[in-house]
Write a structure and sequence with these properties.
By secondary structure, the protein is of the alpha/beta class. Helices cover 48% and strands 16% of the residues. It is built from 13 helices and 10 strands. Helix 10 (195-201) links the parallel strand 7 and strand 8 (207-209). Helix 1 (12-21) crosses helix 11 (212-225) and helix 2 (43-59) crosses helix 4 (77-88). The longest helix has 17 residues, at 43-59. The protein is globular and about 50 Å long. The two termini are 22 Å apart. The protein binds D-glutamic acid (DGL). Residues 6-8, 10, 36-39, 69-71, 119, 122, 150, 188-190 line the site of D-glutamic acid.
Amino acid sequence: MIGVFDSGYGGLTILRQMRQLLPQYDYLYLGDNARAPYGSHSFEVIYKYTLQAVEELFRRGCPLVILACNTASAKALRTIQERDIPHIDPSRRVLGVIRPTVEAVGPLTHTRHVGLLATAGTVNSGSYSMELRKLWPDIQVTGQACPMWVPLVENYEFDSPGADYFVKKRVEGIMRLDPDIDTLILGCTHYPLLMNKIVKYTPPGVRIVAQGEYVAQSLASYLQRHPDMEARLTQHGTCHYLTTESADKFEQSAALFMHEMVKAEHVELAAGC
Ligand code: DGL
């Protein structure tokens, strides 16, 4: 199975696109809903939680895990790849969502002014600025943390009138910081669920980049370039779900996000495992 991890429901926006592009594979999704949001936690906490999730997905038979969470990708991916995988099992792989997004953004912006809407953890990590500098040094990036957006999604308030206030505040805020922005990266996998509101407050002509399709394309290209990994993936087109919250609660919300019935299993991620 391909393991897909997020702090909560946001990774479902990535999973949906992966299943659309690569429906033949089996997927195992893990949402750490009981401990979401991750955005304002310290590096140590995010790293510990993410490693526990990756180990659980490995234990359940995933040779490949996608961190469908920018905060985990920004704060934990490098350490897990460099320090932990060699000890756990060097034949397994963990990939993130930041690099594929940055690769996609270069050809999309004309003004070369890009905005990043993300959690405080992702913005403050500087991961997007660093990756953009490496690939597209002429691009100027402005970050804006949106601390209320993930709680709105996790609490199923993304369509409520209350959400308008928080979305308007941050979108107008980033456009004030740099009015030349022509491309806004949704650098948090929860944010596509607020898309209607984000579109409403984004000036016309500014492109909104959601990550799902780029991450899915990047996974397809990775599997083409790594036939050894591809051969280890089972292909029955199934999708299973794990959550650290109650399975019932997850099933109800995830079904709305995935537009299909979802069967989930509760899992405990043991501290210090
Ligand atoms: N979906 C996660 C991300 O992409 C949200 C992080 C959080 O839980 O705050 O960053």
